[in-house]
Amino acid sequence: MNSMPTLFIRLKSPASRHEDGYRLQCEWLIEESDGSVRASGTTDYRGLSDLIDPSADWLQNPDNLVVIVPTEHVLAVSCDVPGRSIGQIRRALPFVVEEFVATDIDGMHLAHAAIRRGHPTRVQLIARSFVEDWLTCLRELGLNPGYLVADAELLPTEAGTASVLLDHQTALIRTKDQAASVDRENLILAVSALEVERLHFVHGTPTDLERGQLDPELEVQLPDEHYAAALTYFAASWRKGAERLNLLQGPFTPVRPASASFGRWRAVASLAGIWVLVGFISMIAQGFWAGSRASALEASSEDLYRELFPAEQRIVNVRRQMQQKLGQSAGGSAGFTTFLGWLAQGVDRTTGVLSLTYTDARDELAADLLLGNYDELEKLKQKLAQMDVRVEITSAEQQSGGVRARIRLLGGQGT
Fold first, then answer.
1. What is the C-alpha separation between 260 and 264, in angstroms, rounded?
2. pLDDT per position as a tens digit, 127-153
3. Mind listing the pLDDT tens digit for each residue in 203-238?
4. C-alpha separations of 183 from 154, 228, 342, 347 in Å
């Protein structure tokens, strides 16, 4: 859990460069680790530069800086994307969402929530220039945000319910599938178009006139708590840790420094890493030796098979075909060395092996790998498949250093 303060900056406008800096309107709030507010206010670019000390230790960590942007600049969609793998779905996303935008998709930045096969993917699109200008502006102030989220992301979602945040002359509305920012005078019209059973006001209360214009069958829930400002509510919502889509993905992914505890234990970790590397190199060498011996034995087995069955035209897998000739089923334990040989032939020098777990009872090898991107993971899977090795990708997620994936090599396939 974060024990340092968190700086919340709510951007109220695009960032435009001028001779004396940027034109940027924003609200800011510093929240302590216990949830109390240290300070808050409304300012512009110049005022923000006077208020913030980017050299403060806690601001060196991007996770302590949350930037909230207006939903009016963000297009949120949820769509079904074809694909047999997560990598294929990710590559197909831009083509699927292109029909939702009126401008050139190349000028849009695309961010998405977790991708699950067979489930709709939640996507947000925003003009790339907006993100670039905001980040450039903040970095000139010495700030490196770890999160860039649309303000509607901080409203709760529940089936059959629309959450409404009233903020002066605007209203922010979010349902499970939609989000919008409307002028206060259009609130009733916007709510009437929603197919919901409940209206939950999370910040601000409707006027008597507004309540009188609502559908009488619509259940109205007033705020559970009252906050001094909308940004105070957003900060409290952020602290609850609900799932929210971070726009800082792809080329905008923030660089997060190593933790202080890692620095203190770097010497110990380096020594341990050396021994792990030595052990791994030894296992790799053993795997290559086993692979070389296996190739020689396979060649001898193929020669013997041709002598026994000269009419056989195509030899793909000597062991399996011999078992079929003898009426036996394919199977048997592959063994750790064989698994390691397969893995060594599949990975390249840029792939990091984080851990290996061999389970003899299930005849399988589980490996945690760090690859450059999802395409490398697909190539690894294809390369193992070409060697007739059964492989399952149990998880894959994007991290700052690349893609961390957990795969399982399964025995009993008769290779």
1. 6
2. 999 999 999 999 999 999 999 999 999
3. 999 999 999 999 989 999 999 889 999 999 999 999
4. 19, 21, 61, 55
The Cα-based distances of 17 to 22, 24, 142, 331, 358 in angstroms read 4, 9, 16, 68, 57
Task: Please report the sign of the dihedral spanned by the C-alpha atoms of residue 130, residue 186, residue 113, residue 90.
Answer: negative
Cα separation, 241 vs 256, in Å, equals: 19
**Rounded CA separation 122/93 (Å):** 10
* Single-letter amino acid code for the residue at 348: D
List of residues 6+ apart from 230 with CB closer than 8 A: 10, 151, 165, 167, 203, 204
Instruction: Output the DSSP codes for 315-352.
Output: -S-HHHHHHHHHTPPP-----HHHHHHHHHHH--TT-E
> Which amino acid does the sequence have at 260?
A
Distance CA 364, CA 353 (A): 16
pTM: 0.62
Closest C-alpha among 64, 57, 2 to residue 30? 64
Give the C-alpha separation, 215 to 191, whole Å. 9
CA atoms within 13 A on the CB side of 245: 24
What is the rounded end-to-end Cα distance, in angstroms, of the chain?
47
